[in-house]
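Per-residue structure
===
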Amino acid sequence: MVSLQIKVTKNMMNALLASECFDTFLLEEAAVTTFNTFHIDGHLVKAFYTADELLEQKNEFSLWKDIRPFCFQLIKGKKTPVSFKVVLHAPQTLVEKIAADPECGVAANLIRALALNIRYDSGHVACVTGCAYSTFLMDKSAEKLWDSYVRRMLSGLNIDFEAL
């Protein structure tokens, strides 16, 4: 787990809300506080889908690209939000890519989630990584690779940060 303080809030907000940079990620939850607090549970509601649609659905959560416009609508305007929180999970293809790295000692099927928590409060954005396994493991190689991936991704998006 690593905590990164974003140096320029606007760059992170643009990447998260106004671009497709995070669109392949899955949304576990979001909370936006403006004049009210809006909570979005990213878990898919299976009762909404037909049997055929459920067969096509491979994820437990909604894609960020499907929820991003709603969050953007809540946040845009003349006033900045009081706060917001977005919890994203890496898509399965990225989990498999990290598990396939020669430095990773953890099989993909043991990685339950590679998470990225993005929080805005008091004018500042912080990103905190997390790794959840389906069983107890002493091996932290997947977590270290995920932390490194997030740092490279943010740098590639020209988002400056410092580790806390």
Observations:
- Residues 98 and 149 are 9 Å apart (CA to CA).
- Strands lie at 3-6, 26-33, 37-41, 62-63, 83-89, 111-121, 124-133, 161-163.
- The chain has one domain: 3-163.
